Amino acid sequence: MGSADALKAQLKELSDRRAALELEVAQRSARLETAGVGMGGALVDGEGFPRADVDVAAIRADRHAIITLTNDHKALTRQMEVLLHQLHALSSLPGAAAPQPAAAVAARPPPPVASGQHMANGSGSPIAHQAGHSLHQPFAVVDEVTSGSPAAAAGLQLGDQMCSFAGVTQQTAGTLQAVAAALQGNEGRAVEALVLRHGAPLALQLTPQRWGGRGLLGCHLRPL
């Protein structure tokens, strides 16, 4: 197991590679949609001959590439999850110092439900832990923070575990979908969030807002 800084650097590299895959998939998918065939549209006419109104060879190449890229994306995500677990293990070692804010990780992602968190300022106040309280049960972990995003500037860290966001908790049905809805419904307004950082609860104030990158906050949550 490497050092925390080395693990963060590896996560950054893998995330950049994953973002590049996502961009290529998006570009190829756009071409298929423009051609009106998508991933499953017929490439032969009613008599079984290749269609003359589309570039059949190019469409087949794009479809094959999308399948390959999607598999590569899944493999990179699995690698990132392993590294993230290693990073958590390092932070839990006796006497381990709390790491500095995680190296910014390129965002992303069209995969599942993504949502980022923007902290209006860099301040977060530790709060007393109440054992067994449902509020302190995390439902997702921050597995990406986009470089230059509001989340990165505010100090949200890779590995923070989200316990509540704008009233959404582990007991909320469809938690990540509810977070996404809360983001849209609170654009430009500060909302309260609670995360676990190295096992300690931390109250944060986050403000969803437009910026130069994807989403309103610029990070990604992976369900636990």
From TrEMBL:
Region (Disordered), start-end ranges: 105-130
InterPro entries assigned: Nas2_N, PDZ, PDZ_6, PDZ_sf, PSMD9
SMART domains: PDZ (SM00228)
Positions of the PDZ domain: 129-199
Pfam assignment, any one: PDZ_6
Keywords recorded for this protein, A-Z: Chaperone, Coiled coil
GO biological process assignments: proteasome regulatory particle assembly
Residue intervals passing through the bilayer: none
Signal peptide region: none
Highest taxon, organism lineage: Eukaryota
Cellular component GO terms, alphabetical: cytoplasm; nucleus
Coiled-coil residue spans: 4-31
Coiled coil listed as a keyword: yes
Family, per entry: Belongs to the proteasome subunit p27 family.
Record protein name field: PDZ domain-containing protein
Organism: Chlorella variabilis
